[in-house]
Design a protein that fits this description.
alpha/beta; 8 helices; 37% helix; two-stranded antiparallel ribbon; 2 domains
């Protein structure tokens, strides 16, 4: 079975604004780059081809250096529209397509090989994100209508059931963790051994402290300045 992977990537300069109280614009841009390195590295080990699609030439030039296929988005479109362009590029070349976001740096900690093996037994495999989104969607070409967005996990399950496709839920802590908040950065520092992302966060002298507030973890610079 031939499986292609698709990674949609937002412009480096505009992404992860929720981390602006924690990281500078340059630090956020570099974070996106190291996360993409972790994701592409692990997909390349397990898939036949990996494709990065983006509207941003800086992203595409960086992705080319990582040894993956790149596609430039055509026209102004949303995430699902961009992904559909990549799906159409892939569908005549492979048996299954796996879509993964660029901000799941612990992908290598999950049982990615098991997920791929399940593709032999099930039509669709869906891994939920912690907030109800979709952090992995594996499906046959020309089937699923993509529903990425708020609570997309449930929408993709509904879509697969509507099409009477067999479904496997791949429930993984590591794959559920996409990076959007300072607390997420703390999880990467705690669990991201041997990832480019953890190494980068440690180079920024970030450390994790238990929190007594709403969030479970607190991030602090090693200088002692709270974030």
């Amino acid at each position: 079975m031939k499986i292609y992977g698709i990674i949609p990537v937002s412009p480096f300069a505009h992404a992860k604004t929720r981390l602006s109280p924690t990281l500078s614009p340059t630090e956020r841009e570099n974070l996106l780059k190291v996360m993409l390195k972790d994701v592409t590295k692990n997909l390349k080990k397990n898939l036949d081809k990996v494709i990065v699609i983006s509207a941003d030439w800086n992203v595409l030039n960086f992705a080319q250096k990582l040894g993956v296929q790149t596609l430039k988005e055509k026209g102004k479109t949303d995430l699902n529209g961009a992904l559909q362009q990549a799906v159409e590029w892939c569908e005549s070349k492979c048996d299954k397509i796996l879509i993964v976001p660029s901000d799941v740096p612990l992908l290598g900690k999950t049982n990615l090989k098991g997920l791929i093996e399940d593709a032999e037994k099930y039509d669709v495999i869906i891994a939920p994100a912690k907030g109800g989104g979709t952090n992995a969607l594996l499906f046959p070409p020309e089937t699923i209508k993509l529903r990425f967005g708020d609570c997309s996990f449930f929408e993709h399950v509904k879509e697969a059931k509507r099409l009477k496709l067999s479904i496997k839920i791949h429930d993984s802590f590591y794959l559920s963790l996409d990076v959007n908040t300072a607390e997420d950065l703390g999880e990467i520092i705690l669990h991201g051994k041997n990832t480019h992302t953890k190494s980068y966060l440690e180079d920024l002298k970030l450390k994790v402290k238990p929190s007594r507030g709403v969030e479970r973890l607190q991030i602090e610079r090693k200088s002692g300045r709270g974030i």
